[in-house]
Specification:
Length: 364
């Protein structure tokens, strides 16, 4: 995540008659085109994760040709448009510096981004796209917990080659396809609703930022507060429609490995793959292998979703996610944090970045 921003602020010597108009257009083009990038990037990864869950593609999404072509295409278009609209003097006037090292002491994808040169507008655009891609990948990995490792390149900490680090990402949920199940219907809604929430937060705050307001002012505005609340209600509604009211998040959902007929005879297995590949069994979701070696229904507890049991990116790695409402609150908090990290590099003046705690989580 972005915690600090190194910029060269050059706002003091601007005269309205000679330099005011073009920097304004540059800022608008940065916001407009990066929003296009974020929408396409999030939609491409979300659609890919949905397809992988159903077994329609082998995955991972980081190498899926269709997904990566969509991302590379939008990166090229957005980078070219920003470079065309933002000559060096305008970037300096807006407060942007000549470095991509927005953070020091980094590794993984963040080190890759930090090392990028920024000697011309094209390189500046590539720098912003790199950091934003890392943040967006981390957010999608949060939403699609059962594919987090695939989405982040097999690492969820600061060494990840794809994602800005996920704080508090333990215990790791089962990494598996959810299949054509009601659990997957719920997961798809979580992904779709979470993506729309982040985009909505960005739109509201970007519009306010373009008026010259800082982050604190934008968050204090009553109209903005109402719009942000509306976006959260939409997330909660779409999740409730597909998940019900009590699908609780757990790292590992129960299943039974049925290996005989009749009478649902079962065998102990170490994983779903062990059941199907080694025991020639059938996975029965939401059941367990009882003391008589038969698949039996759970006697208590509601439906489950393979998800985090501790919210990634919270300020402390304590407190379990036990209910669907707590999961929704987690998504809303992570969306706020990711939006703050995404926007602070678009508005160098007055838009503070999240501060990372020693645990890898974030402090306001």
């Amino acid at each position: 995540m972005l915690r600090s921003l190194v910029v060269v602020v050059a706002l003091a010597v601007v005269t309205v008659g000679t330099a005011g108009a073009e920097p304004v257009n540059c800022q608008k083009q940065i916001i407009k085109n990066l929003l296009k990038f974020k929408k396409t990037y999030l939609k491409a990864l979300g659609k890919c994760a949905d397809a992988e869950n159903l077994g329609k593609i082998p995955g991972p999404c980081t190498t899926d040709p269709t997904t990566q072509l969509k991302i590379q295409t939008i990166e090229g278009k957005v980078g070219a448009k920003i470079a065309l609209s933002c000559p060096d003097p305008d970037l300096a006037t807006l407060g942007f510096g000549n470095t991509c090292a927005f953070e020091t002491g980094v590794s993984g994808i963040e080190a890759t981004c930090a090392a990028l040169p920024v000697t011309n507008p094209g390189e500046f655009a590539n720098c912003l796209i790199c950091w934003k891609g890392a943040e967006l990948s981390g957010y999608v990995a949060t939403l699609y917990a059962s594919h987090a490792l695939d989405l982040c390149g097999n690492a969820l900490d600061a060494t990840s080659p794809r994602c800005s680090d996920l704080g508090c990402a333990t215990p790791l949920p089962d990494q598996r396809n959810l299949g054509d199940t009601s659990e997957n219907d719920c997961q798809k809604a979580v992904g779709k609703g979470g993506i729309k929430l982040l985009v909505s937060i960005e739109k509201v705050l970007e519009k306010c930022g373009l008026l010259g307001h800082d982050r604190a002012t934008c968050l204090a505005d009553l109209a903005n507060q109402a719009a942000l609340t509306k976006a959260r209600v939409k997330l909660e509604t779409v999740v409730a429609n597909k998940c019900g009211a009590n699908r609780d998040p757990v790292p590992s959902t129960p299943y039974c490995c049925k290996t005989g007929n009749p009478m649902n005879v079962c065998s102990a297995s170490t994983s779903r793959d062990d059941c199907t590949d080694n025991l020639s069994g059938t996975v029965m979701e939401g059941k367990f292998c009882d003391g008589t070696n038969h698949c039996a229904s759970l006697m208590s507890g509601g439906q489950k979703l393979t998800w985090w049991s501790t919210c990634p990116n919270q300020s402390t790695c304590t407190g379990a996610l036990d209910t669907q409402d707590e999961m929704l609150t987690c998504i809303e908090n992570v969306a706020d944090e990711r939006a703050q990290a995404l926007l602070c590099i678009q508005f160098p003046a007055g838009w503070d970045c999240p501060v990372e705690s020693p645990s890898g989580a974030f402090l306001d």
